[in-house]
Amino acid sequence: MTSLDHGKFTKTTTVFHSLLALDVFLLFFSGYAVMFNDELWWLLALMGGNTGVLALHRIAGFALIALTVFWVTFMIIGPGRRSNFREVLPDLRNDTRAFVQDVKFLLGRADERHPHARQFAGYTADEVPLLSYVGKGVVFIFTVELVLLMISGLLIWSKPALMQFFQTKTAAMAFVGFHGLLGVVMLMGVMFHIFEHGFHPAFYPVELKAFIPKSDIPHADHDGEHEGTGIERLRLRPSWNWAVNLGGLAVVGGIVGVLLGSIYDSGYPVPGTLTVGGGPTNVFLTIGINVGILVLFLGLVLSVYGNVLRSRYERQVRERGRAAATDGSGDD
Ligand code: HEM
Ligand code: HEM
């Protein structure tokens, strides 16, 4: 571990991030097994067929509401949380500058990234903001999407009640379409998120920042073993090159597959009927949608792997502490 892995999440946040990811993956798997029941027949069967998958989706939906209530309460009454909240708010001047400088940097017209864009790459913890403008964007977009998914999910909970309320079947169906469409938008964001944090050259195959709490990570100021941030000690894994290309291809293929699938399968944006699925069983669409689900599955695996690495790291730290205490070197 190097100080490049400077933590930013507290222990509660790492646990919350893992639970949120697990629940959102469940919502994706069950939601899309309903929507693309012909292309994802195997997933539907794995999740207990039509009845099982709908029950699972609703239970995971409730879990998301419970997690959100917990998090909002925690943000209001948790120690030091309200000051953290300020870090999430946009700083229009600097965040816009950081974006413009990033474009220039990509075109080779700027020497370095703006401080508000810094997330990785050789800076020490105190040179990096708690959230870069990209991180703020992720929080904002995921929050809006999840809130809208919860509201529309509750609205379509009982379709007969919804039809009675809106008097027309089309208006009721539009809510189902809206919910499914929002899911697709969220899916794109989550796939990029998995790609960003799974395939970064410095951290591949998984960036541990979201899994190891900052209190457990050595920072430059108390990691006296070496000069600098540790970037010079990193070696690019030989498999990164093909893995990043394959991962990028799968993300793009998966997004295109799910987008096209949602147009064909549910008469996007308003589904033709209230019974889901039943679209054309096109082989390319089937491959694209399955690749999309595979990318999500990779995200789930990486999330589990991140937690396995966390517990391995904690064990090593404990053992090192015990060894230092036994040979008496723990005092210096
Ligand atoms: C559906 C699943 C997930 C959701 C809803 C989610 C949500 C979030 C949110 C809201 C943030 C804070 C914004 C940010 O700092 O970028 C975040 C940060 C992070 N997530 Fe996730 N995440 C998910 C899955 C994953 C997975 C699978 C990984 C690992 C591959 C991961 C790795 C990270 C990392 C490393 C950060 C810290 C980024 C930083 O430096 O700011 N996340 N996640
Ligand atoms: C990441 C979050 C979520 C995603 C990706 C998602 C995705 C989906 C998808 C794709 C469908 C099928 C839509 C269609 O028929 O075209 C669906 C249906 C549904 N979702 Fe969600 N959803 C999410 C969150 C929620 C939440 C939070 C709730 C409840 C509070 C919920 C409740 C429902 C209900 C009741 C249905 C209708 C099932 C039926 O046909 O009986 N969803 N969802």
Automatic annotation (TrEMBL):
GO cellular component terms given for this protein:
plasma membrane
Under the heading Pfam families, the entry gives: Ni_hydr_CYTB
Q: How does it sit in the membrane?
A: Multi-pass membrane protein
Location, primary (coarse class): membrane
Q: Where is the Cytochrome b561 bacterial/Ni-hydrogenase domain?
A: 9-213
Task: Keywords in alphabetical order, please.
Answer: Cell membrane, Membrane, Transmembrane, Transmembrane helix
The membrane-spanning stretches of this chain are 12-35, 55-77, 138-158, 170-195, 242-264, 284-308
Question: In which domain of life is the source organism classified?
Answer: Archaea
Q: What compartments host this protein? A: Cell membrane
Q: Which InterPro entries match?
A: Cyt_b561_bac/Ni-Hgenase, Di-haem_cyt_TM
Q: In its UniProt entry, what is this protein called?
A: Cytochrome b/b6 domain-containing protein
Q: What is the species listed in this Swiss-Prot or TrEMBL entry?
A: Halomarina halobia
What taxonomic lineage is listed for the species of origin?
Archaea, Methanobacteriati, Methanobacteriota, Stenosarchaea group, Halobacteria
